[in-house]
Each structure stands twice: as C-alpha cells, then as structure tokens.
Amino acid sequence: MTAQAETHRFQAETSELLDLMIHSLYSHKEIFLRELISNASDAIDKRRVAALSDEALRDNDWEPQIRLERDPEGRKLIIEDNGIGMSRQELVDNIGTIARSGTRAFLEQLRASKTATKKGKGKSEDVATESAPELIGQFGVGFYSAFMVAHEVELETRRLGETEATRWSSKGDGEFSVESFDKESVGTRITLLLRDADPESEHADFTDEYALRTIVKKYSDFVEHPVQMEVERTETKEGDEEPTTVTELQTLNSRKPLWVRPRNEIEQSDYDEFYSHLTHDWNKPLRTIHFRAEGTHEYTALLYLPTQRNAEILDPSKQASRLSLYVKKVFVMAECEELLPGWLRFVRGLVDSSDLPLNVSRETLQHNRQIAQIRKRLVKKLLDTFGEMLKKERETYAEFWTAFGSVLKEGLYIDDAHRAELAKVCLWQTSKGAEPCTLAEYVDRMEPDQEAIWYVTGADRHSVEKSPHLEAVSGKGHEVLFLVDPVDEWVVQRLNEFEGKPLRSLEQGDAAAETDEQKSEREEQEKELEGLLGAAQASLDDYVSKVRLSSRLKESPAVLVGAEGGLSPQLEAMLRASGQQVPANKRVLELNPSHPVVSRLKELHAADADSPRFHQFLELVHGQALLAEGSQLSDPSRFAKLVGELLAPGEGSPG
Ligand code: ADP
To answer: What pTM was estimated for this model as a whole?
Structure first.
C-alpha cells in the first residue's frame, strides 16, 4: 500500500531556521546525534507510558532499543528507535512546522544580533554568525540539526496502535514530501544522507565506527535506553591460526542515570551534557542543584538554572513547571506541574522518587501528599540558592535576574505562602544609581523621616525618572523604586510591605505628607482661588474627580493623583488593553500654585471664566500632566491641535 507522495512547504520560520542551521553553525556539528538520540529516547519513554495505561498497546516482547547503522560507502547514517512513532498528521505537525509560539521572536533576536554585529567596526559577517549557535541552542531545534550534517534526510515512522506508516523526506530546501508505505515494526527510522566528509575539517566522518562510539559516549552515555551499533571485532578462535573478524551488536552507552551516581563522582561537564540532553539548550547551565532526600520519602532531585531565557518562558500556554518526574529511575512524565509553582517554570531538571507507584497519573498527583512535600522542599532549596547567589555572586545574580526576574516576580503576586521569602531575593531599579537593589538594601538606606518605601510605576526607567510624581519626595532625599516591568503593576497589588515598612505609590493618595505649615499655606491659597478651582473642576468633570492645589510640586505645573489603593493608570491601561471592563477611575488634578502656567490660568479665569480659551487651556494642563507621567492621552489629535493653536495664537486660541 503506497499512497501518493504529497509535497508540502515548510512553514516560513522553519525554512529560515533550517537555513541558519546549515549556514551558521560550523562547530560541534556532531551534536546532531545527541539530539536524535534524545528524541528516540523520549519516544521510547512515551511508548512505555502509553502501554501502561492501555493494555491493547502492550507488547510483552518489546525491548526498548535505539540502533545506529552506518554505511561508509553509501555515506549514510541511520538512527532507528522502537518508540511510540508518529502518525501522518503528527509527523506533518511536528516536523514541518515549529509549533513554538516564540519562534518569530527568536528569529528576530537572531537577525538583530546579526545586524548589530555587522554594524560593529571591522567585523566580518562570519563573526556575525558566531552568536547563532548559542541562540539556536537556547531555542532547541532538535530534529532539524540533522541538516547540519546531511544533505537529505528521510524519516520513516509508524505510530503505536496504527498499521499505516509514513515516510517523510526533505533536502532542507524549503520543501518536504510525505507518503504512506508499509513498515513492519512500530517506531522511527531516520536515514541521513551525509554531506561529503571533508578531510580538512575538524569534524569526524559520521560513518566512522570509532567516531560514533566517541560521540555517543560523550553526549549520550547516561541515556537510559541502550544505544546499539554493530561493530567489528577480530578474534582468534581456538585452533585457528589467523584471527577472524566477527560483527556483533554492542551497546555504546553505559546507561547509568546521572542522578543516581554519587555527587563526588560526577564532573560538572557530565552535568552540563545531561542538561543539554534534557533541555536541548546548548548553553551551559548557570547552576546545578543535585541532592538526595532521605527519611520518610526518598527522592533525588537534579535541578538546573539556565543562563538564558527561552522564548517559551513568556508563552501563556506554557505556564507550568518544566520538571520531569521519574519513579525508581524510570521516566513517568515530562512537565510535571505539581513539582514546582509556575513562577519557577524556568527551572529545568527532574525528580526521581523511590516511593511513588509507577502508574501515577496527573490526576492522582494533584492530591498526593508526598509530591506536595517534595514541591515545598524544592521551592525552599531554590529560594535558598537565589539568596546565596545574591549574597556571594551579586553580578551573576543580577544577570540571572535580568533573564528570569519578571517570571519570579509573578510569585509575589500569586504565591501567598512564599511572598515574604521571595521578596528578599528580588531586585529593583531605584532613583539612586543604575544598580538594582534589594528591598532590604532600600530599607537600610531609608531617611529617618521616611515613613514608607516609595515607588512609581511606568513603562521604562527613562520616563519614570522624569515623572512629576518624584517631586513629592525628591527634596527630602528619599529613594524611589522604579517599577518599570509590566508584572510590577500586579506585584504591588499584593506586596504591601517589606519588613514592616509599607510600600506606597507616589502616584496615589497623600504620598508626601505635608508639614502643618505647608498645609495651612495651601488651604489659604485654595480659599483665595476657590472660584478658579471650582470652575476648573466643572470644566474637567469628565476626567478628574477634583482640582486642588498641591504642595508636593516643585517644577511641574500639575500632577494627577489617584486614590490610595486605586488602580494605577498603567494597570488600568493594561486591563483595558486585555479587553476587561474597568470602571472609570477619576483622579485628582493637583496644580502647582507657584508655577507660571497656573498664574496664566488665574488671568484667563479673571478675564472671562466662560471663555473657550480658559477651558482649552485647562484641557492642555490636564493633557500635559498625563504625558508627563507617561500615560496615554484619550484624544491625542485634539491635544495636538490645541498645542498648535497655542504655538500660533489666533482668534479664539487658548494663548
Ligand atoms: P523537540 O524534541 O525539542 O520537541 P524536535 O524538532 O526534535 O523538537 O522534535 C519535534 C517533535 O517531533 C518531538 O517533540 C516529537 O513529538 C516528535 N519526534 C521527533 N523525533 C521523534 C522520534 N524519534 N519518535 C517519535 N517522535 C519524534
């Protein structure tokens, strides 16, 4: 039975990625084998798990196996597994497209890094591609790495439980073809038509027995399932004069799971290799945490902190933990979300429990007390690790924070149980210097008269640095946290204090308490300007709840202040952008009585309180206050028109 072959085009991103792989990666091409063996090993795990839950899929004679076959004359290398295989649809979905939502962002990053390097002085394009392996590795492109060494790849596969098999083939040039055919056994067989071995190149000939052995040993030694290859051996039998050559199937890997070996026998390079096997990330991990828990529940945990953030981290459909669960060295499930909270989803690795049953399901895990205890311990261990890095390796920690801080801070919002501990290891930008600081450091530096930890929120450091809200405390030398990460808006909804000091927004309420003297002066002026303030409030009634004078402003003419505990304008904008109904949130407009703009308002009001000029001028003052704090105007074109009229005064203009 052979159905007609269909030709498909790769998704545009896949093509581009393939092109980059083939043309940018010059070193370590041998890692394609690690990637294919990892996929084969995953497929075997999946078959075992599937057979566990469905008797019809069970085969008592099945012995997991990954086979390498080499053909030096034909320049072929074959990697075959008897894992779960793929259906035709799965094949097209998995291997024709890259289903990760971060693909586009990743490619943009890659292109940007190329352009940036190209622009650099005297750098050639070759240098520009140097960062590609790192970035590609971080993205993890598994199967596609075959095209680094092969000019054509053929993949034949039959899915467990299905009779039809599918053959996929591609030259990596933008197209692939798929056809149905008959395959005797379940599993996947990948044939690489290798590029010519270049005697000048540092790369091994991938049909060479010794080379293949070495590569498997180096990158895949700990893979749990046997990686086998036929090897030739000479032996001299008893009675024979001449030695004869015999071929035999040999297992190339020692198959000893890394995490069960004693720590002092493991080199960091072993951990690093295992990390790549597990994650497809080709960068070295930043930290490796390996420990064994003994007592009522026994388990081993091997956790890794990556160096770089992966595009998937921000994928809203992938918010759960990425740890794998093993039971007595046997793989049970990937991405076991019960093992870690989502705010630690960048942590990779595994937990191997000695006590759980092999047939645990996601449902039973949800209520499993043992898993809950493991999770608690892992979170503590990770928080301790962060604390230690913060104390002893500040620079490394700051880099780690740049990569994963915004994910960790989700915990401040979501996780009541860990909020206080987590807050201790968070870093923040502040008005004092470019180096981020911890809240403890902030509290240490607080002025004696300072009653709160002040913050302003905004889109970026540049805009908050200029915010008029800072004027409330700048004269007193108080430090202000700049909360410029979108997640910070959520964080401050829940993180209300640190070590007894309240966190308060300068945009809200009476942030900067005035002295009695300031208060009576302000009240006196307000009495004097009662008419103006009343008229202004009536004019701006759609936008603000009140217009009053301010003693907090030094340089700006006006500022908008929200109610204590109210939504910040940024959060309001975010909620609206995400389609949520947000009740109208009117703020107070505070005017600076000693600013010339306010003097001008007084004149206009005195001349004719009903004139369009007065009202347009007020609109401009309100719009200016919005722009100054980095908020959006509701009607920018009207604002621009009023400004234009102000710059070129004519009949009826606000000037
Ligand atoms: P990754 O392994 O990082 O997900 P790959 O491009 O290597 O990315 O593989 C994509 C998908 O194709 C895998 O997630 C898996 O579902 C499927 N796949 C790859 N190789 C095999 C194989 N040998 N057997 C079964 N499925 C496979």
So the answer is: 0.73
